[in-house]
Design brief:
By secondary structure, the chain is of the alpha/beta class. It has three domains: about 5-25 and about 100-270, Rossmann fold (3-Layer(aba) Sandwich), CATH 3.40.50; about 35-95, RNA polymerase II/Efflux pump adaptor protein, barrel-sandwich hybrid domain (OB fold (Dihydrolipoamide Acetyltransferase, E2P), Beta Barrel); about 355-415, no CATH class. Helix content is about 25%, strand content about 15%. A six-stranded mixed β-sheet has the order 2-15-14-18-16-17. The chain has a five-stranded parallel β-sheet with strand order 1-12-11-10-13, with helices on both faces. Strand 6 (about 65) and strand 7 form a beta hairpin. The structure holds iron/sulfur cluster (2 copies).
Length: about 425
């Protein structure tokens, strides 16, 4: 048996996988768009400053904005003409056609570089990370080094329904992902690397396993139980060490990355390529062309999904958010799902069924947290451990009263982190007029 198998946690739920329409679709090129609105703030940093002017002709991968403070330089994903510039975006029109993921070509023997040289090489990369946290690659590396992480976990479990972007990277570029994880591990100086995947897809990972034999990397296949891929849950499942309330896996010596980070690091360090887009899964019952696409940053999501009609969710329906008009593909956009508008329910009163508590993987009393949310009692919510919430969305999914519990716990966490002692979080719906009662 090539993959080791183990791992359990309390709580959680079986959610329908909903991946049949995309799981076997190779990464392909989306239909050409008319223009790109390239974000000047792809990570949670200060916006980069444009270095081009309106009307300028831009080559593919040309630098178009310079980093401010700890941010990153921005490079054009495709060639084009600068149509407009505002505080948040640079718009390119008259685009060259997207060509998808470039051919891999080895330019540098990374194993000849020591950790300092790899660090310097990555500092020149101006790469983003690809998670919701919105870090730059160097921000992530510096955080991992500062915490003196001794283990690197590559979280490729992808337990979110509909999403298959990481799976396709592992299936089609498994060797590059594994080598990228070895490069990251050497850069931050860990003694152990674990690649965790969903056990139902291991037959597709032959290339990954062949490369893995060259390195001392553990590959672990985990059973599907949502949300096993939440970073704090995965860290516990793999190491049996619990992440303290309100902390990240770094607090127990674990650095977490994903296949997209490993792949982009490999392409930069080994091939000298800075990828100008990411793999996005397009799915959902109303999606016209479900599949996995390598989409240039700045592509308009509504144009990408056309002719499907709203509503769209960015990410999986378990934790994603509704896609407003004008949204574009960024490093954190792993999926866009065209959902059925009728599934958005109207919240009613909590009936104290206890299901949210039974299934919460962080063992939180979510109904009581919801009471504190409605009372705007942030101190009590903190006392009850709301910072342990892994923002998986199980509570909202399972609640028969259709209360947006995960959204509320997320708002409570944000309020605590901003050190707010009180704020009006909840406004009760106005009572209907007498005549309607
Ligand atoms: S409270 Fe947080 S961790 Fe618990 S089920 Fe809800 S979203 Fe998940
Ligand atoms: S699942 Fe919903 S209705 Fe049931 S206890 Fe929790 S909040 Fe109340």
């Amino acid at each position: 048996m090539l993959f080791q198998r183990y791992g359990k946690f309390t709580g959680g739920i079986d959610v329908p996988e909903e991946k049949d329409s995309t799981v076997d679709k190779p990464i392909s090129i989306p239909e050409a768009t008319d223009s790109l609105r390239i974000p000047l703030m792809p990570c949670q940093t200060l916006p980069s400053q444009p270095t081009v002017t309106v009307g300028a002709r831009i080559e593919p991968h040309q630098r178009i904005a310079a980093a401010m403070k700890d941010g990153i330089d921005i490079f054009a994903p495709l060639g084009g003409t600068v149509k407009s510039i505002d505080e948040k975006t640079i718009e390119l029109a008259d685009l060259t056609q997207p060509k998808g993921i470039p051919e891999s070509s080895i330019e540098t023997s990374w194993s000849d570089l020591d950790s300092v040289q790899l660090y310097q090489r990555l500092a020149e990369s101006h790469l983003p990370t690809f998670g919701a946290r919105g870090e730059t690659m160097m921000g992530w590396i510096n955080r991992a080094k500062k915490s003196q992480a001794n283990t690197l976990i590559i979280n490729a479990v992808e337990c979110q329904p509909y999403v298959t972007a990481d799976h396709r990277l592992l299936a089609e570029f498994g060797s590059e992902v594994i080598t990228g994880s070895a490069i990251l591990g050497k850069t931050i100086g860990v003694s152990k690397i674990i690649v965790a995947v969903d056990e139902t897809h291991t037959d597709d990972y032959t290339e990954l396993l062949e490369t893995n034999a060259q390195y001392d990397i553990q590959c672990i296949a985990l059973p599907r139980k949502y949300p096993i891929g939440a970073d704090n849950i995965l860290a516990y499942v793999l190491t049996r060490h619990e992440v303290p309330c309100g902390q990240d896996p770094e607090s127990i010596g674990i650095a977490m990355a994903g296949p997209a980070e490993c792949f982009s690091v490999y392409r930069w360090v080994v091939c000298g390529q800075r990828l100008g887009g990411r793999v996005v899964t397009i799915s959902g019952m109303h999606a016209e062309r479900p599949g996995n696409y390598f989409v240039p940053y700045g592509t308009d999501i509504h144009e990408l999904m056309a002719p499907a009609e709203e509503p769209f969710i960015i990410g999986s329906p378990m934790i994603g958010r509704l896609c407003p008009e004008g949204s574009v593909v960024k490093p954190s956009t792993d999926a866009v799902v065209a959902i059925d508008p009728t599934i958005v329910g109207v919240p009613s009163q909590c009936i104290r069924c206890g299901w949210c508590h039974d299934h919460c993987p962080a063992r939180l009393n979510v109904a009581v947290l919801n009471d504190h949310y409605e009372l705007s009692d942030i101190a009590q919510a903190e006392h009850l451990g709301v910072l342990s919430c892994v923002e998986c969305g199980v509570c909202s999914y399972i609640c028969p009263a259709r209360l947006p519990l995960a959204e509320r716990t997320r708002k409570l966490k944000r309020a605590i982190k901003r050190r707010q002692t009180s704020m009006p979080l909840f406004t009760p719906a106005p009572k209907p007029p007498e005549s309607d009662r």
